[in-house]
């Protein structure tokens, strides 16, 4: 098997855990969701069995532990508990903590995570740049989703429906967002839970209205204001999805930095208590597990009857299984993104080559003209300008041309600035569409252009052509070649538990909406962050359409939108339908969802993998809630399949991005045609025969059960399905060549197994620790690192506390490997200690093991296992 990775020096550490500090709690109630890039050192969330037990537990906890700090307290029927942090407790404190957590009042302990600010492509428009009402109308995506018909034909604008938004705050003084806060205003509910200065590492300052007034100098992007405008913004020229809906905003991000997941939990509970009709969250992280605290709380709110709509994520470039939590929570509506059909761009002219090139600036404001130079010695690589060492000196005083990829736009721009460049022109790595690089605060002019234009400029520069670029301020509406297809950034399913995520999609690429007034009031953004409020606004329209009728449960509402989705091709002009793993049930069609009376449940099918016959057969129920008989012809409308691996090149490292094949499953349908009278239901059994591909390739096939209407004025309905050829349990967890031990935390050196490692218990010694380097090519339900006596083979402790729910690594430089430090101290292998203790002098080995997906922990064959060479503790 080929190794899937070449380590990138200095940028590869996803996690570093030295046992001398309490960074992971070892207790049988501990339920870590081990996304190592987001875990917060020594910080946890404790769930209690009842909210009445909270006051006494907090009091006892605070009085018993001198080195513990309580952050958030949750006294709520949905989730009761608290978050706390530990700062190097003594052995006595560790025993007290363990005793407290042993209490019957404690249900579970979760590690606390940093929730990243949404990764978006932003295009603020300067206030002095003219754009017309006609251009704004061309940018509205409502014709793609039938929202325009809901407004014009049904007169439904969502009035009276309250949409709760959890985000970065909102500039509610914006005229299109009501001009104020509180009763009688559009933004009527909510709270600032964190304050401007909060960055995820300091204490939040709770209180006051959720105003985003950060100012452009902070680098804040106005994410929450953009989201709010998509849902309910309105003025003479701009109309949100539900323009008369009421908004609530619970601010969880400050002007910079991240948020902690306990703040997200606080916001979810507060929005639920406020009586919101639905909740909308455009945030999350890369782990595909559903066991995080915020995902659990979101799922419980859904179970109580409130729809929760959450972004699937923007990690599509990293391949399959990139839909993130908390959108993976059971019952949560996970949203994919589709590109708008138009984009709003500027153009610059060139001398030396006769070209007018569309561009999108990273920030509003005038951009001076200048000469263009090649920005990387190997321009066109996947890592242009990711290191100053590859940037030629000729960029000094010029705009540097580089290709998009690998490192962030901020890193590219900062590196180029350090070499004297006055600006950066970054060209796309997929498609000739201009885009807005997210690169605020770098201090040089940065613009994004299409791939073809960038390659043409690079070719001319290589020939020695002198090129000067002059930036124009006039805006142009241009068609997007990928319009009404799934956005390239949209995360790919399924969940790690093989549930179909995303569930459906909305417009999220090149979306025009409100921005804070300090950013010019209007602009474009791209992301599932934009698709999510679009779907949320659409659900608000659906709830409004019910009037005083009893509302169905959130699962039924989600199914309504899934039944009538539009399935996009992978590429416009191609007859092949894109996989449900990218688009779920498809782009929502809101008018049909509100007016049609045919309902199919369940609205999606997972045939799982081929490890058993348990999931090969499913029964669909089609119900006619209308007044007339309907008839359908039922067929299998196959989609493209996902080829997750290139075994010859990368082994079982996921291809980034995905590749496709035309491998298709056949379906045995119990009925090929049906006629359903008004008020009646019909059941259809669907049994799959997967494509006959090599099980080692784990092809992810899919398609749609198509109900083709044969009666007039009846729209088709569809049900997406997917499955995997092969057994997920057979997939290796560790990449070839890992685990290994290293003298450094970057994994630059490999210690061979035939070399005895010496660890001195003296912490001041240069050789007081060794580093465990792992790379997870497949998620694992459980990772363990046992320490064994070298002579007897007896387990004497754990080098790393057990790590349930470990996500896979990616090819991104900051997530290629996980690193754990081992300094000769161990946790109890049975979970009886809350703090690591030093090993006695002697010789030991490390045994690392990771449980296969869907594996049985009692079966040795269901584990990947690796044993180190000898380690002497002196």
UniProtKB/TrEMBL annotation:
Signal sequence annotation: 1-24
Keyword presence, Hydrolase: yes
Keyword field: Cell wall, Hydrolase, Protease, Secreted, Serine protease, Signal
An example Gene Ontology molecular-function term: serine-type endopeptidase activity
Record-annotated Peptidase S8/S53 domain positions: 158-545
Domain C5a peptidase/Subtilisin-like protease SBT2-like Fn3-like intervals: 605-721
Any one GO biological process: proteolysis
Listed SUPFAM superfamilies: PA domain (SSF52025), Subtilisin-like (SSF52743)
Catalytic site: 167 (charge relay system), 223 (charge relay system), 529 (charge relay system)
Keyword S-adenosyl-L-methionine part of the UniProt annotation: no
PA domain mapped to chain residues: 382-457
GO cellular component: extracellular space; membrane
Gene3D superfamilies assigned: 3.50.30.30, Peptidase S8/S53 domain, Subtilisin-like superfamily
InterPro entries, per the entry: C5a/SBT2-like_Fn3 (IPR010435), PA_dom_sf (IPR046450), PA_domain (IPR003137), Peptidase_S8/S53_dom (IPR000209), Peptidase_S8/S53_dom_sf (IPR036852), Peptidase_S8_Asp-AS (IPR023827), Peptidase_S8_His-AS (IPR022398), Peptidase_S8_Ser-AS (IPR023828)
Membership in a protein family: Belongs to the peptidase S8 family.
Name of the protein this chain belongs to: Subtilisin-like protein
Taxonomic path: Eukaryota, Fungi, Fungi incertae sedis, Mucoromycota, Mucoromycotina
């Amino acid at each position: 098997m080929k190794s899937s990775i070449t380590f990138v020096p200095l940028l590869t550490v996803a996690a570093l855990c030295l046992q001398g500090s309490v960074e992971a709690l070892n207790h049988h109630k501990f339920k870590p969701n081990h996304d190592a890039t987001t875990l917060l050192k020594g910080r946890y969330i404790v769930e209690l069995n009842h909210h009445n037990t909270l006051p006494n537990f907090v009091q006892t906890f605070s009085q018993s532990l001198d080195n513990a700090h309580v952050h958030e307290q949750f006294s709520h029927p949905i989730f009761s508990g608290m978050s706390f942090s530990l700062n190097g407790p003594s052995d006595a404190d560790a025993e007290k903590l363990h005793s407290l957590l042993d209490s019957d009042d404690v249900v579970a302990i979760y590690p606390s995570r940093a929730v990243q600010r949404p990764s978006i492509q932003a295009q603020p428009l300067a206030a002095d740049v003219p754009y017309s009402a006609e251009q704004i109308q061309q940018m509205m995506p409502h014709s793609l989703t039938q929202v325009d018909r809901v407004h014009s034909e049904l007169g439904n604008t969502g009035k009276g429906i309250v949409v709760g938004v959890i985000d970065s705050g909102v500039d509610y003084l914006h005229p299109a967002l009501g001009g104020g806060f509180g009763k009688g205003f559009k933004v009527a509910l909510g709270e600032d839970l964190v304050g401007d200065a909060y960055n995820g590492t300091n204490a939040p300052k709770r209180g006051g209205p959720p105003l985003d007034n950060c100012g452009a100098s902070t680098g804040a992007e106005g994410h929450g204001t953009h989201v709010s405008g998509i849902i309910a913004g309105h003025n003479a020229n701009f109309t949100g999805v539900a323009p008369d809906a009421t908004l609530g905003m619970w601010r969880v991000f400050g002007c910079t930095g991240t948020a902690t997941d306990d703040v997200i939990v606080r916001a979810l509970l507060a929005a639920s208590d406020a009586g919101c009709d639905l909740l909308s969250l455009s945030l999350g992280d890369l782990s595909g597990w559903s066991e995080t605290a915020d995902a659990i709380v979101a799922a419980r709110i859904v179970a109580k009857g409130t729809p929760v709509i959450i972004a699937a994520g923007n990690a599509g470039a990293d391949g399959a299984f990139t839909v993130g939590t908390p959108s993976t929570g059971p019952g949560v509506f996970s949203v994919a993104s589709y590109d708008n059909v138009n984009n709003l761009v500027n153009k610059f002219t060139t001398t030396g080559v006769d070209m007018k090139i569309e561009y999108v600036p990273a920030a509003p404001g005038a951009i001076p003209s200048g000469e263009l130079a090649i920005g990387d010695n190997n321009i066109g690589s996947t890592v242009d300008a990711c290191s100053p060492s590859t940037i030629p000196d000729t960029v000094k005083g010029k705009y540097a041309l580089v290709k998009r990829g690998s490192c962030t736009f901020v890193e590219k721009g900062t590196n180029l600035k350090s070499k004297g460049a006055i600006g950066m022109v970054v060209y796309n790595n997929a498609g000739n569409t201009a885009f807005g690089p997210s690169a605020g605060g770098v201090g040089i002019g940065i613009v994004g252009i299409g791939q073809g234009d960038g390659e043409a400029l690079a070719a001319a520069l290589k020939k020695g052509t002198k090129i000067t670029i002059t930036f124009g301020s006039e805006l142009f509406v241009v068609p997007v070649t990928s319009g009404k297809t799934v956005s390239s950034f949209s995360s790919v399913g399924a969940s790690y538990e093989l549930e179909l995520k995303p569930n459906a999609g909305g417009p999220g690429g090149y979306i025009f909406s409100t921005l804070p007034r300090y950013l010019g009031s209007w602009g474009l953004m791209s992301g599932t962050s934009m698709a999510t409020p679009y779907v949320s606004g659409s659900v608000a329209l659906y709830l409004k359409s019910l009037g005083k009728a009893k509302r169905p449960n959130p699962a039924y509402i989600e199914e309504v939108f899934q039944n009538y989705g539009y399935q996009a091709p992978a590429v416009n002009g191609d007859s092949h339908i894109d996989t449900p793993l990218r688009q779920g049930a498809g782009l929502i069609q809101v008018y049909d969802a509100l007016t049609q009376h045919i309902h199919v449940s369940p609205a999606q099918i997972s045939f799982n993998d081929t490890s058993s016959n348990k999931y090969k057969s499913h029964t669909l129920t089609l119900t006619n809630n209308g007044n007339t008989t309907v008839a359908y012809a039922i067929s299998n409308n196959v989609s493209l399949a996902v080829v997750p691996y290139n075994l010859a090149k990368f082994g079982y490292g996921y291809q980034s991005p995905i590749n496709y094949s035309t491998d298709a499953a056949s379906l045995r349908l119990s009925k090929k045609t049906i006629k359903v009278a008004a008020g009646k239901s019909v059941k259809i059994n669907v049994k799959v025969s997967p494509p006959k591909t090599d099980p080692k390739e784990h092809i992810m096939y899919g398609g749609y059960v198509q109900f083709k209407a044969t009666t007039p004025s009846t729209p088709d309905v569809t049900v997406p399905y997917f499955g995997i050829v092969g057994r997920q349990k057979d997939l290796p967890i560790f990449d070839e060549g890992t685990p290994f031990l290293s003298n450094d935390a970057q994994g630059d050196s490999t210690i061979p197994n035939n070399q005895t490692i010496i660890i001195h218990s003296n912490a001041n010694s240069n050789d007081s620790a060794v580093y465990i380097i792992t790379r997870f090519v497949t998620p694992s339900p459980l990772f363990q690192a046992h320490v064994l006596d070298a002579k007897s083979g007896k387990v004497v402790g754990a080098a790393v506390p057990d790590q349930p729910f470990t996500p896979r690594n990616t090819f991104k430089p900051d997530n290629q490997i996980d690193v754990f430090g081992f300094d000769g101290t161990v946790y109890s292998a049975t979970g009886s200690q809350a703090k690591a203790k030093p090993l006695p002098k002697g010789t030991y080995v490390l045994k690392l093991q990771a449980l296969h997906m869907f594996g049985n922990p009692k079966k040795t064959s269901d584990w990947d296992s690796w044993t180190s060479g000898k380690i002497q503790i002196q």
